[in-house]
Design the sequence.
């Protein structure tokens, strides 16, 4: 018996594995190779939107629009603030006044809201969100993968996710009601937790005209339970004033947004910050 | 290894990776099990295919059969477990696989002889240079051609031949055979 035969016979002691034996390996491989399409999509955009929510309201000092459309007169503040402002309301009133001085740019439906986040670890994430929700966007998730954000074409039977709402009020009290109604629709509750959670998502998910954003800031000052916290740092270590609340079941405040106390510019959150926010004409176009 | 009527692996790697797994995983698992045992093979077969998926762009589109390429990836993973492989080969000497419970007196002597040969064989395999053992096992047990082994391990065909020659020489010498330099490639399928 020669060495080749012996080596062959040694090999024959091991038989092919059964499908059952391979099942776990197959499942492990396919989980990475082909996760269910819908789950993958929702996971990706859940990640992105979580980042957006964490980033909070964008800096109001935005790059100039690429193609401004006709600009109707900006609606002015429609309501005086409450006579006796709490500290948080007073602070946010100043932030609102600052926001009102920004250019009033009305997006076209075929434009994109461009967002650039800087995460806690210094990495940047970008996204181009379709203004009317009917055009394909583009973005990068935390895995570093860029992918199309599918737009919902007319007649496709899908849910349109617009990134500009012309029905968003410019009145603080109306905005509070709008926030509660929207939080209930999205999160099933209009509690403080739900409203603050909703605030986190819309603040970057929606392009806002100056009067809308000003009303949003003032509306937050009207919500019981929201307060100011000093000495909070955003993800880049920039110190500012935090607008915070105490989540139910917890004892510590959680800052949702951090503002520069001198300029009232929104800096970000402890986890993330907005580097840029702008309107652009096409995906992958940077402001 | 496959007929032309079967789907092209280069296309399947991009379009239907599950089909690539189903076609080749049993053979890659057996190869890994032969070298490292079933349990390690269970893990490494998944590693092999995950690596293949991540590197699928490096698979040459003019190739139809991914199996040699997969063997190459698996062999790289085996290389990270060299100590385990050598330990396993030395264990073979002490605990032969699957003792035959129905053996009778006539077979005892033959079994003793086979067992002794086997001990010598596994000992010699454990003493082979790693690269020589890779080539020997891919050619003899996995039945790859020289060209397929060369592609799998990214080495010249001449190196495949010389490694195989050296491995056989060492085994022959260990088994007490004839001059190991004679008829070194007899009985080996080659391309």
Sequence:
């Amino acid at each position: 018996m020669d060495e080749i035969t012996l080596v062959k016979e040694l090999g024959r002691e091991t038989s092919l594995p059964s499908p059952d034996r391979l099942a776990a390996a197959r499942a492990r491989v396919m989980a990475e190779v082909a996760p269910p399409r819908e789950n993958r999509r929702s996971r990706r955009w859940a990640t992105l939107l979580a980042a957006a929510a964490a980033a909070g309201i964008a800096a109001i000092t935005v790059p100039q629009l690429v193609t401004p459309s006709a600009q109707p007169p900006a609606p002015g503040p429609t309501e005086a603030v409450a006579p006796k402002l709490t500290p948080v309301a007073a602070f946010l009133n100043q932030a609102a006044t600052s926001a009102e001085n920004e250019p009033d740019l009305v997006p076209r439906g075929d434009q994109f809201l461009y967002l650039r986040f800087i995460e806690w670890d210094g990495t940047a994430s970008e996204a181009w969100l379709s203004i009317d929700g009917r055009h394909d966007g583009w973005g990068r998730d935390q895995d570093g993968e860029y992918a199309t954000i599918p737009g919902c074409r007319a007649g496709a039977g899908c849910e349109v996710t617009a990134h500009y709402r012309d029905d968003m009020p410019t009145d603080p009290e109306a905005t509070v009601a709008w926030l509660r109604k929207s939080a209930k629709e999205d999160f099933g509750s209009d509690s403080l937790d739900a409203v603050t959670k909703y605030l986190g998502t819309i603040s970057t998910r929606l392009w806002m005209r100056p009067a809308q954003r000003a009303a949003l800031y003032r509306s937050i000052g009207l919500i019981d339970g929201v307060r100011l916290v000093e000495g909070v740092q955003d993800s880049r270590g920039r110190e500012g004033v935090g607008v915070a609340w105490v989540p139910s079941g917890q004892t510590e405040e959680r800052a949702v947004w951090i503002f520069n106390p001198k300029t009232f510019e929104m800096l970000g959150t402890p986890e993330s910050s907005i580097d840029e926010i702008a309107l652009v004409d096409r995906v992958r176009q940077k402001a | 290894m496959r007929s032309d009527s079967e789907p092209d692996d280069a296309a399947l790697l991009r379009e239907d990776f599950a089909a690539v797994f189903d076609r080749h995983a049993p053979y890659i698992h057996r190869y890994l099990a032969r070298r490292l045992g079933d349990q390690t093979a269970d893990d490494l077969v998944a590693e092999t295919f995950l690596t293949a998926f991540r590197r699928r762009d490096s698979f040459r589109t003019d190739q139809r059969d991914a199996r040699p390429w997969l063997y190459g990836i698996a062999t790289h993973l085996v290389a990270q477990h060299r100590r385990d492989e050598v330990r396993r080969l030395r264990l073979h000497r002490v605990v032969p696989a699957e003792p035959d419970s129905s053996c009778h007196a006539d077979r005892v002597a033959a079994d003793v002889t086979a067992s002794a040969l086997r001990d010598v064989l596994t000992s010699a395999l454990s003493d082979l240079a790693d690269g020589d053992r890779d080539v020997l096992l891919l050619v003899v047990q996995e039945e790859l051609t020289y060209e397929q082994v060369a592609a799998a391990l990214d080495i010249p065909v001449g190196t495949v031949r010389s490694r195989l020659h050296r491995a056989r020489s060492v085994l022959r010498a260990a088994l007490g055979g004839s001059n190991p330099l004679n008829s070194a490639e007899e009985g080996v399928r080659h391309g």
About this structure: The interface with chain A takes residues 17-18, 21-22, 25-27, 29-30, 33-34, 38, 41-43, 45-46, 49-50, 53, 97-98, 117-118, 121-122, 125, 136-137, 140-141, 168, 171-172, 175, 177, 186-188 of chain B (CB under 8 Å). Residues 7-80 of chain B form a domain with the Rna Polymerase Sigma Factor; Chain: A fold (CATH 1.10.1740.10). The first helix of chain B runs from residue 9 to 15. Residues 16 and 109 of chain B are 52 Å apart (CA to CA).
